[in-house]
Amino acid sequence: MSDEKPPQLVDYFVVAGLTESSRPLEEETQQHRPARPSEPITDVAVIIRSQGEEVPHGFTCIETTTSGHPVDLNAGLLNNPQMFICYKRGRDKPPLIELGVHYEGKDRPKPGYKILDTTPYSRSANLNSGGPGHQRTFLTYRRAAEPHGHNTLGVTDICLVIPSKGESTPHTFCRVDKNLNTSMWGPALFLCYKIAMAKANTLVYEAGLLGRYPEQDSESFPLPESVPVFCLPMGATIESWPADTKYPLPVFSTFVLTGASGDKVYGAAIQFHEAFPRERLSEKQSLRLGLLSVVDRRPVAGRSLQTRKSICVLSHWPFFDVFRKFLMFIYRYSISGPHVLPLETHISHFMHNVPFPSPQRPRILVQMSPYDNLLLCRPVSSPLPLSGASFLTLLQNLGPDNAVALLVAVLTEQKLLIHSLRPDVLTSVGEALVAMIFPLRWQCPYIPLCPLALADVLCAPVPFIVGIHSSYFDLYEPPRDVIFVDLDTNTIFQSEERKLLSPRSLPRRPCKVLLASLHSLSQQLDEMYSGPGEEASLELLLSDAEAARGRRAQLELEARAAFLRFMACALRGYRSFLRPIAPAPAPAGRDAGSLFALQGFLKSRERAYHRFYGQLLRTQLFTQFIEDCSFASDRDPCLEFFDTCVDKVQAELEKPEDTPLMELDDPRGGEHTVFITPPEQPAGPDGTELPARYRYDGFPTLRPELLEPPRDPLVAQLCQARSSAPSSPAPRRTKQEMKVAQRVAQKYSLVPDMWAKCLLGHCYGLWFLYLPTHVRAAPAKLRALQLAYEVLRKMEAHKVVLPDEVCYRILMQLCGQYGEPVLSVRVLLEMKRAGIVPNTITYGYYNKAVLESKWPAGTQGGRLRWAKLRNVVLGAAQFRQPLRQRERRAAAAAPPGGRAPPAPRPSLQRQTTWAGRSLRDPPPAPRLVKSGSLSFPGSTHGEGDRGGPGEPLTPRPPLLPAALDPLPPRLRGPPGSADGSLSDVSFATDESDRADEGPATAAGGLAGGTPRRGLAAKLQQLLSPGKRPPLRPAASTELPAGPRDAAACPRRGSEQRDGDPPPRRSPVETLLRPRERPESTASESSVSLGSELDLSDTSVGSAGVPKATEPAADGATGQEPPAVEVLLSSCSRCQGCGALVYDEEVMAGWTSDDSNLNTTCPFCARSFVPFLSIEIQDFQLPPSAAEDGSLPPPAAQGPVLSDRRRCLALDEAEPELCNGCPDAAVPRRSERVAFAYLSPLVLRKELESLVENEGGEFLAQPELVDSHPIIYWNLVWYFQRLGLPSNLPRLLLGSQHVTPTPQTQPPDSPCVRVRLLWDVLTPEPDSCPPLYVLWRLHSNVPTRLRSWRPHGHPFSLAFLEAVLSHVGLSEVHKAIALFLETAPGGPRHLQRSIYREILFLTLAALGRDHMDIAAFDKKYKSAYNKLAGSLGKEELRRRRAQPPSSKAIDCRKSFGATLEC
Distance from first CA to last CA of the chain, Å, rounded? Predict the structure, then answer.
């Protein structure tokens, strides 16, 4: 289990201000500007000198422009009235905060503005008074509200500019874009003004640390020393105010600290003023603050002394609104009172007891006091990096055109200086500038709120993005090679030394779409915040605040998506220019030129934009981006999301795509909310309230004894959010991959054949998620990795639909982990061969494996020579193979007296074939055909060819030509056995089979190879169960049968060989001619609802025999008997109609929703949860019995099955023994459980969550079986179903379902065998037995379940033979009609459909390998359509006679009919 702690909301609480060691900032060595004005402008006036008006007392007249040109407002008129603008400074009234120009008759008066319509001498102040036909123009102004604070922003300077004279708006000035000269003559004249904080009597010092909590640094994140200067970026001040000055409101600001690894830490602070004692000032400081008269040094009355402080929280999460509310609550708490609880209690309570929101509880409601609360919501789930950016703030302060100009500046790595008088805006805009270039990442200095103490960074010779308070320019002269961005005036100032590229250098169509989107968003923002002020504020603040927040979040998302689309269009196709690292990379393997074809990418762009792309490719932005794309990094999910965006966009369009690149995922939609109560108030000894004794004159020094430790750790555990365990190599899909997989599943759920392949792809994805655990436990790592590679090739060969690249990615990382770079290259080539372009995550793991793994020796000469020698030897062996085959044919044709060469000895298997014939029997005729379905593989020699001691081996011809071999290679046995022998098929037999064969085989063995019944004789008895002998006949009655049947074998073979049967008679002869029923065909394993794949020895055991035979059957393979046997079945009963729904039908009914456990019943269309039924049979000895030694060891239970005569003798002598196994093999413990059967889509999601929370090692621990049984048993089912290796069955030995293993046994001696069944494990008590079970009961063959007994059903033996006769004659419609006539009127007692009954009956009669299920499906569907015309489809559906859906058939084809019954 991962030991990672949940994310912490707040890391530190900091108090910053003036300390004893603070140094004055005025003594810095930077070049200072001239003295700034100390008082704001409080009044403006217009005078007409031609009328004799003089400048009023205390006013200053503006007579020239910024460059010295005269500024007569009516210079172009014939009767020039000589009008001038004057202003007055002071602090006797609130300052002006805005100026404007009003065109009478054209403009509507703005609320809050006053029109200056007269001069101080009561004449008209019309600035354009040339005549009655001219536009009347007046100045307007807006004054700050009463009462005003000492630090209120106001107009501090006014100037006039004439653009035609080459003049431009001065830096940090606002320009009124209305011409003061509206006449036809004269130059255009514009009014400019500057807003600043006109402060006098102020001392500025560098801020220091006054207090912090916790006092000890965290190991993962120590408190940076520079935090205090960021809390007070303009310094800690001492200010002298008039005595009646109001305290200003606290100022909220945010900042970002970037660590060495690129991690961001967000700070939120509020600045406020509090009283400062005069006793701490020196005489020099008092003089500078105006507290002492200059002449006699006497105290000045009517002045108060204030200092500026700040409180701040540091966090790794940009919850700026939440932190602002908390800090404001703490500040109000410090200036009010008295209180019962100290301030420190609320601080420690918020830091320790407020958890980080998790997906399970996405909302945290914190009640700080009866009147103060805040809602903490989980961050919006987005594949983009977390940031505090606000694109809407960027648009509101700069506009669309300037935003695009800044995009060019950031992409070309310019020096950007952003400044504003609002410190909280700087961080939002700075974060937006670095976020708009995603997926590129800013690599140069980035300080969105730069303190004055760190302003030296502006002189750095590298690109930077720095935000600073606008008052910086009142103190210092800025550098000349910097681009200034004024957020207060919406202007960008460029120096002559540093000119920006024009936005026209950007790709035209993507830039046009970007501008159109930004203009639309800007217009929507104006509509949101326009209208009557009172109504808008009331609507936003009261009734519709939540809707306004949601609308703003949607607009924010659209703005970010607009920039994302532009970057996707600008970088489209970049992945095709990435260069995979060549084998054995050189030391310069990380160079951008070796990782990316720079010139090829540049040539792929239009020539008109080469200048822009040329600068972009040379930036550190792009170099780092190529490295991130080439190597595994923490940005892989973000880059993978960008790749999907590149695939979505169409750069040639001039409008955005219909499909949005980003979707809003609002975390506030969660249902669960954690409520955090305020700290409890302590009670007195008698239960009364304690008196309120905490009252503060200013913000106090934090007292450690009052800071309480965390009291409620359970809250953090409830909301704990874990991350992926570091030991699991790349098991997680990104959120984007999950969305893509969901869309693919939804698409393929409508296509039957693709739905099956989609499910199969997710099953393989499950195994690859388990692969790291499997490789870790494997003794040979390379062999396990090569096995996984072969699985990949097999998936490609079968056209499996992979929903993502996790399979390739996990194998690539494992190759790097275990030092196999060559195999990693092969995996990449396999991906390309499959047509899959690796995404950023997979590509990064590939390059990491290739770059960091140790390659084989560089000299390949020796390896090549050995490879050539190997090829020569293999070629010679191939040439000798025809000679060996000729020798074998000659030996086979030799007379019986000749001696045949010894045949290779196969592995230990049952010496009884499907037909019940010993391999010592003489072969039947070489031609035996039943509609192409009874073809058997050829055989040369078997283990039974060896006679008694000293007898020669008898050569035998092949049973059938090799061309008729229908078995896949993996079912032909190990390489040491003869290819195609019937013993290699490994069909099991049951007790009756052995009873029938025992005496004859024993007699044949004593006679030295006397033949028994042949294959043809067995086939003659295939469907005549009534004529078979008793279950346990006496030896005397069966002894003559061997020679008699053996003698009949050549005749029957010759009859079929000499004469062609009638066209319609061949199936009937094969199915219904009176002959003895071979017992082994009636056993459930020989029914071969068995596998085409080897599923953990499922081909060895027999499900139809008593369980005492199973260990011996396992031993027949040369392995130890199983300690535990597990039977699994996915057949589930619909709760609505009571019908049994089989595996392929369950798969077809699943949906593409990875959270939906239901499937759909194919008969009643109701949804229900399918179940996996499990039967666990424990054959282990109890620990006490094993320790006492009272029972013999397992090896002494009976003879080895290869000793044929001893086994058969035991069969004859001891009816209670089965295959030589005593009754001790009966399971000592049997348990049946059932768990939900999950779709591969659901199971994969759950497995990913388990690996993420518990770690990959948990999949190798026995606790998995008991703590997560649903996941465990579903994984066992799917892995066994697909024949994929795993160690999951062995985990069962350590679970509560199995008897603990005695200490005396070796730890790896017990084995677990898993068998997958097609039908139910336990039948319903009142249900009618299925036809295939009735067939066995009529045949006196014991079934797997002894509870099956003949009930009052109408299905006689004649009925079963008639159904099989119709099926054999391809008259399936008659079989269905016969069933409908014979069966009860409704499906109340019949749980299986008619299709399932007939299919299972035919399989029981013929065997799986002698029946083509696909051909049967076609015939059944044709028969159903024929009957639907006469009986109607509704009636057939009511009687459950419909065939399975095409989706179910495709699921069975894809997964294979690999189940027993």
Answer: 39
CB proximity list for 1098: less than 8 A, separation 6 or greater: 1085, 1090, 1091, 1314, 1315, 1316, 1458, 1460
Report how far residue 521's alpha carbon sits from residue 394's, in angstroms, rounded to the nearest whole number.
11
CA distances from 860 to 94, 786, 865, 1235 (A): 87, 22, 9, 55
Cβ atoms of residues 395 and 485 within 8 Å: no
Residue 1128, both tokens: 């699994």
The pLDDT confidence band at residue 995, using thresholds 50, 70 and 90, is: very low
- Cβ burial of 34 (10 Å; 0-12, 13-18, 19+) is exposed
* pLDDT band (50, 70, 90) for residue 664: low
Tokens 């139910």 sit on residue: 1320
Contact 1459, 1413 (CB under 8 A): no
CB-side neighbour CA atoms (13 Å) of 38: 8
Say if CB 195 and CB 155 are below 8 A apart: yes
Cα 641 from Cα 736, distance rounded (Å): 6
The phi, psi pair for 875, rounded to 5°, reads -65, -40
Q: In this structure, what token pair is assigned to residue 1454?
A: 């894809």
Of 1247, 1236, 1249, 1233, nearest to 1159 (Cα)?
1236
Residue that has been written with the tokens 């199969």 in this structure: 760
Torsion angle defined by CA atoms of residues 29, 33, 34 and 39, in that order, rounded to the nearest 10 degrees: -110
And the tokens for 893?
A: 């044709």
Structure tokens at 258: 């970037």
Cis peptide before 338 (omega within 30 of 0): yes
The DSSP line for 967-1001 is S-GGGS--TTSPTT-HHHH-----HHHHHHHHHHH
DSSP letters spanning 1419-1448: HHHHHHHHHHHHH-HHHHHHTT-PPPPHHH
Q: Looking at residues 1120-1148, what average pLDDT do you find? A: 87
Assess contact for 80 and 72: CB atoms under 8 A. Answer: yes
Cβ atoms of 466 and 400 closer than 8 Å: no
Number of residues that make up the chain:
1461
The first and second tokens of residue 70, run together, are 């005269």
For the chain, count helices (H), then strands (E): 46, 32
Q: Is 399 left (phi over 0), alpha (psi -120 to 50) or beta?
A: left
Give the other-Cβ count within 10 Å of 230's Cβ.
27
Label residue 476 exposed, middle or buried (CB < 10 Å: 0-12, 13-18, 19+). Answer: middle
pLDDT at site 1201? 32
Residue 1275: name the closest of 1238, 1311, 1250, 1316 by CA. Answer: 1238
Residue 67 exposed, middle or buried by CB count within 10 Å (0-12, 13-18, 19+): exposed
Helix, coil or strand: residue 984: helix
What does the pLDDT look like over 1289-1310, one tens digit per residue?
Answer: 989 888 888 877 655 445 455 6
Does the pLDDT of residue 732 top 50, yes or no? Answer: yes
Burial of 1339 (0-12, 13-18, 19+ CB in 10 A): buried
Cα–Cα distance, 431 to 444 (Å, whole number):
14
Q: What is the pLDDT of residue 325?
A: 92
Please choose, from the candidates 642, 629, 577, the residue with its C-alpha nearest in 3D space to the C-alpha of residue 844.
629
- Inter-residue long-range contacts of 1355-1358, CB under 8 Å, 24+ positions, other chains counted: 1355/1328, 1355/1331, 1355/1382, 1357/1025, 1357/1026
Say which residue the tokens 């606008």 belong to: 470
Strand partners, 61: 86
Q: Name residues whose C-beta falls within 8 Å of residue 442's C-beta, 6 or more positions apart in sequence.
A: 410, 434, 465, 621
| Cβ(1098)–Cβ(1090) below 8 Å | yes
Residue 466's H or E segment, with its range, is: strand 464-469
Ramachandran angles phi, psi of 830, nearest 5°: -65, -40
Residue 492 phi, psi dihedral angles, 5° rounding: -120, 125
Q: What is the pLDDT of residues 670-683, one digit of tens each?
A: 457 788 888 887 77
Q: List helix spans (H) across 634-677.
A: 636-648
List residues bridging with 104 in a β-sheet.
Answer: none
